[in-house]
Amino acid sequence: MSEQVSRRAMVAGLLLLAFATPAGSPAPGSPLLPPELRDLWPEGMVVARGTRSVVVGHHAAPGSLDEMARRADTAGQRVAAVLGGPVRPLVVVPRTTREAAELAGVARLDGLAAVADGGRVIVVPEFFAMLNPTGKDVVLIHELAHVVAGTDRLPVWLYEGFADYVGYRDAGLPVKTAAAELAAEVRAGHVPSELPGPAAFAADGRDPVRLARAYQEAWLACRFLADRFGEETLVGLYRDARAIGVDQALASLGLSVATLTARWRDYVRDQLA
Ligand SMILES: [Zn+2]
Asked: What are the structural domains of the chain?
C-alpha cells in the first residue's frame, strides 16, 4: 500500500558526498542506487549518500541533501534497533508536494510530511520543511518503519501505531506533548471508544486535529502493548498479525480487539488525564 502517506548519527562529513548526477546515469560509486531510481527525473537529479542511506533529490541545491542523509542514517539505526538490521534507507526528495503525490500515486498529500511507497520514503518538501528537527526525525523513522515492517493485511491502527511507536521510542518527548491533541480530548472528558479506523486517517485536509488524534490513539495502543508485554512481544505480535491476522495474533496474548480496546482506553486515560 502506498501508505496514505507514508516520518541522526554523527557521521564524518567526508562520508556524505553530494554531487550532481547526469540524467540517466548512476552516481559514481553509488551501488546502492536502485536501477529504477536512476531515471527518476530526466534532468535535475541530485544524489547524496550517508553511511547506509541514499537520498535522491530533484533540483536540490548542492549540499542541501546532506542533512537529509544524516537523518536517514539515524532513522535507519532507530528502525534497526526495533526490527533488526542493518537498514539501508532510500529517501526521495521531490521538488514539490504535487511531484511527491505523483510519485506516490495518490491524489493528495495534505498535511503529510513524508510517505512510504514501496521500498522508499518520499518526502513531501513543503510540509517536511515546517517540522522542527525532532519532528523531522520522527517522520522519517515512522515512514521507514513502514518500509521495513510492511503494512499488508494489518488494521490501520496497528501499522500506524507501530510506526509511531518506533518513531517516538527514542525521541525524548513526554507522552502528553507527543499526544497533545488527544490529551486535550481526554482532559475534556472524552476518551475514544474504539481504535481508530481508516476514516480517521483520511489525509484529505478536512480535519487535521482529528487526523493527529488518530495517529496518537494508534500510537498509544502499540505503546500500551510494549509497556505491558515488552517491545519484543509487540514486534512479534506485528509479525504474527501480518502472517495469521490480528485476531489470532492478539489471541496468543490472551487478548481480543474488544479486550485490547478496553485496556487501551484505561491506558489512554491514565497516561493523558
Ligand atoms: Zn504512517
From this structure: 13-149 (3.40.30), 156-272 (no CATH)
